[in-house]
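During the reporting period the student researcher (J.K.) took over the structure-prediction task from the postdoctoral fellow and processed the backlog of single-chain submissions. One of the processed entries is reproduced below for the supervisory committee.
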Amino acid sequence: MRKLGFLIVVILAAAGFAAAQVTSPTQDVLGAHNVYGRGCIACHAPHSGAAGNGAPTSANSGNLALWGENLTPLYGQTLVFGNMGARGTQPQTTFPVTIPNYGTTPITVGTNTIQPTSLSSGISAGDGTFVIAACLSCHDGNIATSGMMRGTTYETVTINGATFNPPTLLGNDGSTPGNYLNDHPVGPAAVVGCGGQYNWDCTVNADGSISFNGPGSSAFLTDYFDVTKYGPIADLVKVPGTQSSTSPGAYTSNSWVTCTTCHDQHDMLYFNAGSSIGIKPTHFFVRGWYNPGNTMTSNSAAQFCRSCHGGESNEMHGQIVPTT
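J.K. obtained the following structure tokens:
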């Protein structure tokens, strides 16, 4: 994926976790998103939107996915993610995302335009920008503040003997407040492509989905798991594909990354990689087999990043290295 840097949120490939691999759950799969026992209703208020969780409310609050956190501070804001220093002499690239006013602005999903008064969780599921806003309503810490979070992960990370909890407030992580350049690109500009030097040898389908059917990408599905059915590639915001005008033979799906492309907010501990691979451990709600604390030679975290970043994979370098 030429236009994207390495996965910032999950770039813990060299990290060891404080605990060894978990083989049986000792807590609910929601993990930290159980939110001190409040559970599902901490995010999806059954009544009254944000007011149902004691937050300021606005027009049509809760109409999308029964969202129970305050989105209003984010309305109209343009956030600039992932300042990528491209390879060679290519210029720096940034990925701006403007959050609509979900209280008043009609939302377009596919070919349908829906007025806010008629929005429902089923229709809004395809709106990747709403996903970004919903996640930031808790995980921003700068424009939108949350009273429930401590600002660091529940899980600890150990690197070279140092143990710590990484920050979870993207807009207030200890760097300059409002700095999102150290966060992985999301939004319509954060697209995934096929072909060329830095992407997988994959194929873009007419609906914007991606098939891993080249020699390298096909081998990756065996070495890791089928990311086009169960992992990040399956959870892109899908937009029909076009041929690239700058990279002959390369196609881009125009399908782009949102927060839930890489994270399954409903399961902190385990990932279902399909019947042939089974249930694998994960951390930080990562949507994949992601267990760098397994051994000193574990490569499952690197493999997760390679779900999109094929140019950095073993297979595209002519190597077959199983996931551990």
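The committee noted the following: The radius of gyration is 20 Å.
J.K. will present the remaining backlog at the next meeting.
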